[in-house]
Amino acid sequence: MDTQNLSAPACAQPLNPRGVTHINTKHTNRFTVVGNHLSQHRRLSLTAIGLACHIQSLPSGARVDIKTLTDRFPEGETRIAAALRELETHGYLARIRERLPSGRIVTHTISYNQPRAVRAPHRPEPSGDRPPQPPAAPPSPPLNDPPPPEPDPAPAPGPPSETTPTPDAAPAPAAPPKPPLPEPQTPDLDRHRTATALLAGLHQHDPRLLLAERDVRHLAPAVAAWLEREVSPEAVRHALTANLPPAPRHPAALLAHRLTESLPPPPPPSAPASPRTVPLQNCDGCDRAFRAPEPGRCRECRSTLLEAA
Q1: Maximal C-alpha separation, the chain
Q2: Which of 31, 72, 75, 222 has its CA 20 to 30 A from that of 12?
Q3: β-pairing, 280-282 with 289-291?
């Protein structure tokens, strides 16, 4: 009677009428352990918490730059960049920049499953192509909101340092959102077709401006707004292709910036045509002045001639 029957169904769990009811199933593969100090953090935004869980679930070596995360999730670059800064502020992420012997600057991203004390960023010595070793994580803090780090011993009296941040320093303000692309005031199918053909043919003038079909559809209304302001297609093409950087990493973003920041003003309204003044003529019959475009006889003299005839 004391033998446990493993095939017996689990007892039904009563539903909680005032809150969530958990139905938990044990994971056997493809799972990530996330602490409650992250999932229930009281200062992180929901975007930052979800992004931290996604980064911790990725294998080592996966790309977590802003462009890769923007292509993966529907949030834009502004929200993802702000979430990454939140994770850096609260010690769940560190981004270290290093200059390689070739002169190229690379960024090493370190993810912490336990929050670390936020201090001055570590600057490793350049050592060829080998990435720096991440510092050891601190001991596990209690659940829920992590306590603030213990302050360092009080330094000797002197002027305050401008390079050492304090633990209570406010997070960096979010970058301002990018201005939207210009759009035409009145839709015109022919103008939109001209804009699409112009963007699709930019790579014929410069192979570095080979755009994807999605980018052409995204930028076509902005080019149509230029054409609506009486800018010729050749002038638009010259504004987009002149003085390009040696190796543009994101051609579509570069063209969007130029179309937005260099938008020409609308043409001035055309002045109404002044009414034409009919000149004065002297009648050949009675020498009386009358208005007519050409010399001849006045109306009365023409009427008299018609009656006489």
Answers
A1: 141
A2: 31
A3: antiparallel
In the structure, what pLDDT confidence band is assigned to residue 299 with cuts at 50, 70 and 90?
confident
**Least trusted range by pLDDT, from 61-65, 80-84, 136-140:** 136-140
Percent of the chain with pLDDT over 70: 75
Residue 58 falls inside a structural domain: yes
Look up the CATH number of the domain holding residue 78: 1.10.10
Asked if residue 144 has pLDDT above 70, the reply is no
Pairwise CA distance, residues 169 & 179, whole Å: 29
- Domain membership of residue 45 (yes or no) is yes
- The range of the structural domain enclosing residue 305 comes to 283-309
Contact 53, 39 (CB under 8 A): yes
Identify whether residues 132 and 46 lie together within a single domain: yes
2 is a domain residue: no
Whether the pTM exceeds 0.70: the reply is: no
